Automatic annotation (TrEMBL):
Protein name per Swiss-Prot or TrEMBL: Uncharacterized protein, isoform A
GO MF annotations in UniProt: 2-aminoadipate transaminase activity; pyridoxal phosphate binding
Domain Aminotransferase class I/classII large: residue ranges: 26-404
Name of the gene encoding the protein in the UniProt record: Dyak\GE20248
InterPro entries per UniProt: Aminotransferase_I/II_large (IPR004839), PyrdxlP-dep_Trfase (IPR015424), PyrdxlP-dep_Trfase_major (IPR015421), PyrdxlP-dep_Trfase_small (IPR015422)
Length: 416
């Protein structure tokens, strides 16, 4: 048993581990984080926003930014967020529906903690965000139920079958079950759920009274026609509307993960649950100071400028990388070409194992990616898949890396 903690003096989340994208000797195509170049203007932008915010605090607001904030976050900040995303999504985002969080990770943890019966079920896509799986597993009495995923989103028939078999009446929490998904530019597959699938999810949620949690961190990274987000299908004027969908958003992919700022968008019957929970009653707004700075960042139009820079960089990287893969992947492999987001999902022949291919790539080509098994609930399914991320490296390095990866795969298939 350890009797003391070692001070590791790490500089970032990836420092000292297999995912260290700042390690120059290995091309790490696994990490879903913005590159250094994308965040290059942040120091100057945030300095300007901080000065703007704190001058007003001192002049007009009794420095209340340093006080416990209102549980949902200040109206001014929520108004800036709602205004921007209403225009971006081309559908209403109401400030009164928002709760400021420290990011989508905290948002999901809050939902699990406050809304789901601890003897309940979490339905997930058969491949899904691995950290979400890790979080759910910390709630050891919850049961994770994988659901089949098709090219246009979750398999509605399988979802209904799984839900029907497990539904019960919770006497402790608002919901007996949650369906967690990333419907817009899915992680890890890059899939965009079709309108028919989105409508079907909402209909099933209303029929069986389960909650749909949309991890919506990639919604604005659309490189073609803007999609309609799943939450928009839970229409409040419908006769059977009950409020079964939550959108969980974050600025981590576009302003920087170190900012630690996100938001939950909740229907009227669910927002009071978060506003009145112990977390909020104890701390008030979960990120009062930083949200104030980001509010000024939007007022000064610096946030919009930064998001546009990130968007153009990601778009260029995605289009260039997928083009190389379409041209040079072996014919026996399958590629999902996303129309947005961060990730590319590649399938190799079923008789091969991506875990072994990863070892081969590291030893012979110094390329790292994430194998499909990491995204499955059982940790074993998905050996024929791997995920690539276009977020961190410049286009030229991604193109070279994709080309080298294709050549490595061709060689590996010949040898095996």
């Amino acid at each position: 048993m350890l009797k003391s903690n070692a001070e590791r003096k790490l500089k970032h989340l990836f420092d000292g581990g297999d995912w260290n994208v700042y390690e120059p000797n290995i091309l790490k195509l696994g990490v879903g984080a913005p590159g250094t170049d994308i965040m290059a203007a942040n120091c100057d932008n945030f300095r300007a926003a901080t000065d703007h915010c704190l001058e007003r605090e001192k002049r007009e607001n009794q420095s209340l930014i340093f006080q416990y904030g209102p549980p949902s976050g200040t109206f001014e900040v929520r108004r800036e967020i709602s205004t921007y995303f209403t225009e971006m999504f081309q559908s209403p985002v109401n400030s009164e529906d928002l709760i400021i969080t420290t990011g989508a990770t905290q948002g999901f943890h809050l939902i699990l903690s406050t809304m789901l019966d601890f003897e309940g079920f979490v339905f997930v896509d058969e491949y899904t965000f691995m950290v979400a799986l890790d979080m759910i597993k910390h709630f050891s009495t919850l049961t994770i139920v994988p659901v089949k995923l098709n090219d246009d989103g979750v398999d509605l028939r399988d979802l209904e079958e799984q839900v029907f078999k497990r539904r019960f009446q919770s006497k402790k929490k608002e919901f007996w079950g949650i369906y967690y998904t990333i419907p817009t530019y899915h992680n890890p597959t890059g899939i965009l759920f079709s309108p028919e699938v989105c409508r079907g999810i909402v209909q099933l949620a209303r029929k069986y009274d389960f909650l749909v949690v949309c991890d919506d961190v990639y919604n604005i990274l659309s490189y073609g026609e803007k999609p309609t987000r799943l939450m928009s299908y839970d229409v409040r004027t419908d006769a059977d509307f009950g409020g079964h969908v939550i959108s969980n958003g974050s600025f981590s992919k576009v302003l920087g993960p170190g900012v630690r700022l996100g938001w939950l968008e909740l229907p009227p019957r669910l927002k009071p649950i978060i506003d009145g929970c112990g977390f909020a009653n104890s701390s008030g707004c979960f990120n009062n100071y930083t949200s104030g700075i980001v509010g000024s960042l939007f007022e000064l139009k610096l946030a919009q400028k930064q998001i546009a820079v990130a968007y153009e960089a990601y778009k260029e990287r995605m289009l260039a990388t997928t083009q190389v893969l379409r041209d040079e992947l072996p014919a026996c492999c399958k590629l999902v070409s996303p129309t947005g987001g961060y990730f590319i999902w590649v399938r190799i022949p079923d008789q091969l194992d991506c875990r072994e291919f990863l070892k081969y790539c590291l030893e012979n080509h110094k390329i790292y990616f994430i194998v499909g098994t990491r995204f499955s609930a059982d940790g074993q399914s998905g050996k024929q898949f791997f995920r690539l991320s276009i977020a961190f490296y410049p286009k030229e390095k991604l193109v070279d890396g994709a080309r080298r990866l294709c050549n490595a795969l061709k060689d590996y298939i010949v040898k095996h």
